Task: structure prediction
Amino acid sequence: MKLYDRDYTILTSDEEAKFRSLKEQEVVGEVGILKVREPLFHKYPKAVRHYISLFPNNYMDILELKDREELNNKLACFQQLLT
Result:
């Protein structure tokens, strides 16, 4: 069972390029041989956020959960389905 129609275990070339670019931007400095990073997870494309999770096709995206209006619409549809 999957939550989404798309297979998030595979990224497009554009998504891979954007991911590599953002990973490079995350490095803000170095301490000796260690790289200091500032996470830019919220800027990753949706597919990348799914791809790097443990279960890509069943990942609940934290950024989607912030959209209260969409969540309320889905809840109303689900409640209607139950009744």
In short: The longest strand covers residues 27-31. Residues 68-82 form the longest helix (15 residues). Strands lie at 27-31, 34-37.
